Amino acid sequence: MIVTKSKSKLVTVIIHIAIWAVFGTIYFFQPLTWNISLPFQLWIKQGITLGLVIGAYYVNSFILVPKFLLSNRNSIYILALVIVAAIIVLLNSYIDRWLNLPQLMDAAFHKMPRHRGGRGHAWDIPMIAALTATVALVLGIGTSITTVQKWQNDKQLHQEMEQDKISSELSFLKAQINPHFFFNTLNNIYALTHINAETSRKAIHQLSRMMRYVLYDTQNSTTLLSQEIAFVKDYISLMQLRLTEVVKIDFSSPAALNDIAIPPMLFLPFVENAFKHGVSATQPSNINIAVEQQGTVLELKVVNTIIKEQSNNLEAGSGIGLNNTRRRLDLLYPGKYTLLINENIAENIYSVHLTLDLS
User: Fold this and answer.
1) What is the DSSP string of 321-352?
2) What are phi and psi of 355, to 5 degrees?
3) From 27, 88, 330, 340, which residue has the greatest number of CB atoms within 10 Å?
4) Domains within the chain, CATH numbers bracketed
5) Are 332 and 263 in contact (CB under 8 A)?
6) What confidence tens digit (pLDDT) does each residue in 17-70 have?
7) For residue range 259-285, what is the model confidence (pLDDT) as tens digits?
């Protein structure tokens, strides 16, 4: 990251040098088109003026725009620009008199064959007008570039903050699962070893696969859909270790899967929510989970029975919470997802329908 920023700054410096080199070439070339014998003092004057214009650009870009314009002090900013332009024009006039340029240039123009005399110091007014226009142009360009750069930096910072927020939420989700789920599952497996060694070995393998997924495979911003589905299957299988026969669980996924990239652990909050609030040790209950795929459209459907003693505050007690999951979806898929949640008290059913457009 540091190397990339250093290279970016170096490229910016090179671009600025190249632009000013082109500008300076044009600035010095223009007098050559007058087709007169130019005094040496003119080139000194052009060099000093070019330096003043460049200085005005950076004073405007690094001081005036950030301090006044971007702080909504527009009146002070405009006044500062006028003062900068006036200072350059006054210094330009002083340099002209110091180098005796008006007289030298009038003398040079009087040597032209078709020159019409009687204009006094014809050098002054055109040069002041040209300089004022040049300063105004340079300051305007500087203001535009600095404002656009500030907007781009703010946008990039906002994107980085959003990415940090997504990473933080994912880390929080991992922390929620690790102590709560894994240790309880280990206890269930330990008890299972005394009853069914083969099933316990299978459960240990599933748990290790889940731990590897959570600790390593989710470090990237995306994972494969097949890995996410395998994780959900392992989660369901291990949760069943502590459930009785009164709980019926059904899970389905596409037979011909288009293995696309999705954010890791995107489905888990909805699945976890169903197990946390939709199962009972004594009451008959059902959980139906379906992953469907049509082209680039991915759907997750979770339907579970509402267990009354566990139905209070469903959203607040569901892992990282469905509200946090909505925020994560807003960051990852703005305008490209729908999340429909319905709590049907009459039919005693809680359903979640998530649709993602991954095009």
Assistant:
1) -HHHHHHHHHHHSTTSEEEEEEEETTTTEEEE
2) -125, 125
3) 88
4) 2-158 (no CATH), 244-357 (3.30.565.10)
5) yes
6) 887 887 777 776 666 555 556 666 777 877 888 888 888 888 988 888 888 888
7) 888 888 888 889 888 888 888 777 888
